[in-house]
Amino acid sequence: MDPVLRRYRALFLLLFFFFLNAFLRTNAEVLTLTAESFTDKVKEKDTVWFVQFCVPWCKHCKNLGTLWEDLGRAVEGEDEIEIGQVDCSLSKPLCSKLDIHSYPTFKIFYDGEEFAKYKGPRDVESLKAFVLNEAEKAARTKLEADT
Questions:
Q1: Staple partner for 89: which of 9, 28, 55, 69, CB 3.0–4.6 Å?
Q2: Which region is the signal sequence (predicted)?
Q3: DSSP secondary structure code for residue 117 in this structure
């Protein structure tokens, strides 16, 4: 094989794996939930879901910037905690059913049920502390129910 062609092939493979890794890392931290996937996901056994409900035209949602993705990265590796988001402009019946009337709304779900609603400061540290605390409460509740 021609050395120049071999070099281009190696460069192509390197760039391909770099972008594939970046794509997988970005999407692994925050899962977009839809009306079709929401119920099955939040019913996952022993998993706490912290879900942001937003619409694209909301200035408060836009002002969050990368907050939700930053939170996803901050809790990555925490056992049984998932970060999700729902676009209520695409999932109106779901958002109505869940009593979402203002944006953004942040809710914790555990075993398919709403467990808590977040109303605190909008920074990664506060959100992370909240979800870790609620996950601990959910685990205790589950343990007490099993005994």
A1: 55
A2: 1-28
A3: E
Q: Summarize pLDDT for 84-133 with one digit per residue, the tens.
A: 999 999 999 999 999 999 999 999 999 999 999 999 999 999 999 999 99
Single-letter amino acid, residue 59:
K
The answer to pTM > 0.85 is no
Instruction: Catalytic residue, from 54, 61, 88, 95: name it.
Output: 61
Q: Could you tell me how many residues make up the chain?
A: 147
**pLDDT tens figures, 72-85:** 999 999 989 999 99
Structure tokens of 113? 């049920």
Q: Are strands 105-110 and 113-118 parallel, antiparallel or unpaired?
A: antiparallel
Alpha carbon distance 122, 64 (integer Å): 8
| 106, containing H or E segment | strand 105-110
58 is catalytic: yes
Quick check: helix, strand or coil at residue 45? coil
